[in-house]
Amino acid sequence: MAYLTLKGINKIYPNGFHAVHDFNLEIEKGEFIVFVGSSGCGKSTTLRMIAGLEDISKGELLINGEYANDKSPRDREIAMVFQSYALYPQMSVYDNLAFGLSLQGVDDDVIDEKVKHVAHILGLTDYLDRMPRALSGGQRQRVAVGRAIIRKVGIFLMDEPLSNLDAKQRVTMRSEIAQIHRQTGATTIYVTHDQIEAMTLADRIVIMNNGYIQQVGTPYELYFKPVNMFVAGFIGEPPMNFIRARLENGSIRIHQSCLNVTANLGCHAQEYEGKEICFGFRPEAAVLGSQENAFLLDAKVELTEMLGDNTNVYVNIGPHNAILKVNPHDAPAVDSEIRFSIPKDSAYLFDAETGAVING
What we know:
This protein is 25% helix and 34% strand. The protein is α+β, with helices and mostly antiparallel strands. Strands 6-7-8-3-9-10 form a six-stranded mixed beta sheet, sandwiched between helices. Helix 2 (93-103) packs across helix 3 (108-122) and helix 4 runs parallel beside helix 5 (167-184). The chain starts with a strand and ends in a 9-residue tail after the last strand.
């Protein structure tokens, strides 16, 4: 196993583009870390700097406490799985798995034992004689993962490994990657733009935007305790609803509704008096009808989407749009007028100018 420290890591390209800004992170031995964010946020660039495939413009990378900025990729004891499987098309599955060990001069008997062991873990035993072109996308990805874990390195880097798979294959591979991590105990850094992959796989998630870390935390912390509107809106499907409002006399006013939120703002009540804020709530927090100790909002139903276990209800709250996630048996009719409740402990308030949470 291995651990990593990233201190003030920056990536600045020759054309002046600053891709990663002051990236700081401590990664524990055996931890599964996921970098997540939209395309261009700097997550893959950061992974490539850890791998030694990109130079670090500024900052320090420590692996097992040793300065690693100048180490070659080979000397970093890292195995990497790419988005494109990068298999040797002219080699069988067996030979693809064995190739790295052969280059290291490992004995044939040891190679055979290791290949068969890894093939068993990944469900590839019956495919060892096949060529990559004869495999499905999921099987090819398992070979790519197997080629990484067979080397027994301390750090696995995975860059969008499931993006070329269909939805069913992604679900299967997610569980397999989680199981592999439990079996190997290796420190793993995984890059994805898919929040479901991040939430289901990670011990901790690093959310990035425009080259900056927005928040680092467990899936629970990011979902229930977001530090700003970007994180709150990125995690969750459908995303969190944000409604512009104004604080007046210790209450917020949304269109025609006036909601008392003094308790939520606490010591910030006077600071935000007369200012615009954002009222946020997750679609699944909405409860149809009136409830005690909750914010009550009136809305008109514009559209419903029946998804099986729940129904998404698209509503207008005056000039504002929102999505509610409700029990399909209770879904209201299109064009109907409804009242719904948001429990006070499920509501979020954000600074409208900075996006920072003000009642977390």
